[in-house]
Amino acid sequence: MASTPSLTLLLALLLPLIPLAVAAPEKHLVTHLPGFGGALPSKHYAGYITVDESNGRSLFYYLVLSERDPAIDPVVLWLNGGPGCSSFDGFVYENGPFNFERGSTPGGLPKLQLNPYSWSKVSSMMYLDSPAGVGMSYSLNKSDYKTGDLKTAADAHIFLLKWFELYPEFQLNPFYISGESYAGIYIPTLADEVVKGIQMALKPRINLKGYLIGNGATDADYDLNSFVPFAHGMGLISTDLFEVFCFVLFLHNCRCHK
After folding, report:
1. 88 Cβ contact list (under 8 Å, min separation 6)
2. Would the keyword Nuclease be found if you checked this record's keyword annotation (predicted)?
3. d(CA 30, CA 46)
4. pTM for the structure as a whole
5. Cα–Cα distance between 15 and 168 in angstroms, integer?
6. What is the rounded (10 degree) CA torsion for 117, 8, 24, 79?
7. SS3 256
């Protein structure tokens, strides 16, 4: 998914504020954001965690602590889909702490206003750019940009293990994996990696409680072939038109299986 010019500008302005090296969480503290005046509603952290030392493959995260009680509230990982969409899309357009407005002039600085429906009202939200090459995540070995779903899940699992080492105060908090669209592939594959890690007694133990998928991709054949029955079931097309579509689909499948 291509970024809008305003979103690209926001990311470019934010990047110099973010330390690149993994360090104590206080060194990842974000003190202010371009386009937003006043104090942030809770503590924000951002930075990189290296998941492959030999290739220099590092994933970028942005953490928004819960505005309620971060000591006990759930930690929720958010993944946008694509594949190839930065999770900053969710941060600035969907469930993040701000509402996003274009600048008053073309190419001007976008404005951020507090979002009263932010998920950070009740949980600590972590937005992860995954895999490397998406958003601000990167690798020093360009061959890493040719990847697959299983490698993406393995890298995200390594990221989580290192992230919980960096933030040990959240190891006992309920942890959820969430996202949308192609994250319907990312989420269950990552959850499987996390569960296997728990069974293998990997440390730190991730307190996985579940996952949430919205508008999720599952399988191309099932997803695409469900559009017409869904439209008919919702009363969006007539029964006559539905039967025509089904007949055309039947003929198509007959030709494909010859």
Report:
1. 7, 11, 62, 127, 129, 135, 136
2. no
3. 7
4. 0.81
5. 25
6. 50
7. helix
> What angle is formed at CA 172 by the lines to CA 209 and CA 194, rounded to 5 degrees?
45
Write out the residue range of the structural domain in which residue 244 sits: 220-258
Same domain (yes/no): 96, 166 = yes
3-state secondary structure of 58: strand
For residues 36-43, average pLDDT: 92
What is the pLDDT confidence band of residue 256, given thresholds at 50, 70 and 90? Answer: low
Structure tokens at 236: 């969006």
**Are both 237 and 142 inside the same structural domain?**
no
Give yes or no for residue 221 having a pLDDT over 80: no
Distance CA 102, CA 88 (A): 16
DSSP string, 184-198: HHHHHHHHHHHHHHH
Q: Which two tokens stand for residue 143?
A: 């061959």
Residues 134 and 227 in one domain: no
CB atoms within 10 A of CB 172: 12
27 lies in the same domain as 139: yes
pLDDT of 1 reads: 43
